[in-house]
Amino acid sequence: MLTKCFYFYSSELEKNIIILYRLKSSKVFLESVNLIDSRNLSNFISENDFIIEKFQSVNNISLIDMVKIINSCLKGERVNLYDSIRKLGIIIDYKKTFKTDFASSVIRELLKVKYGETISYSELASKLNSKAYRAVGNIMRKNPYPIIIPCHRVINKNGTIGGFMGSNNDESSINIKRKLIKLEKNSRS
């Protein structure tokens, strides 16, 4: 099973959204979602071992519909990306990344946070009867499906944005998180 990839540009995020996936017995397994600046796109592609396709040449209806759903969400429609993408038959195997019971329970609890809402790392930990808010942050940092598993909804207890996509101090990543939170809060009902 070879990893394949396609990407499309999001003017709302001012990033390329790169979708890595595998096909097996006509089933789509989502590998990761990456948000990359145009200037870093060629480096990302050359540093990874996958087959790249132009989005226009993707002929899998589930993948095409997934992009439509993502674009609708980024244009302000209230969409539960995780559930909508799974309903297309696309497999999002987050347990491959989040192998411990605690990590899986953090992701399950995160998926309950509604569109347009935020939760702090410590509140998320508390919902699991834990005080391990730093562990929650580490789990968010490893999320291979940003925007789909909505780790952008997790913020610091004091209301500041916090890190995003594995970085605590990359202003570009933090700006994406800020845009996603703002987009969801200002979306159409």
Question: If you had to describe this structure to a student in words, what would you say it looks like?
Answer:
There is one protein chain. The protein is of the alpha/beta class and 189 residues long. The protein folds into two domains: 4-92; 95-185, Arc Repressor Mutant, subunit A (Orthogonal Bundle). It contains seven helices and seven strands. The protein has a five-stranded mixed β-sheet with strand order 4-1-2-3-5. Strands 6-7 form a two-stranded parallel ribbon. The chain is globular and about 45 Å long. It starts with a strand and ends with a helix. The model has no long low-confidence stretch (mean pLDDT 90).
Poorly predicted sequence stretches spanning 5 or more consecutive residues: none
User: What topology, given as strand order, has the largest sheet?
Assistant: 4-1-2-3-5
* Name of the CATH first level of the largest domain: Mainly Alpha
**Distance linking N and C termini:** 40 Å
Helix content: 25-40%
Q: What does the overall shape look like?
A: globular
Please name the CATH architecture of the largest domain.
Answer: Orthogonal Bundle
Tell me the CATH topology of the largest domain: Arc Repressor Mutant, subunit A
Radius of gyration: 16 Å
Mean residue pLDDT: 90
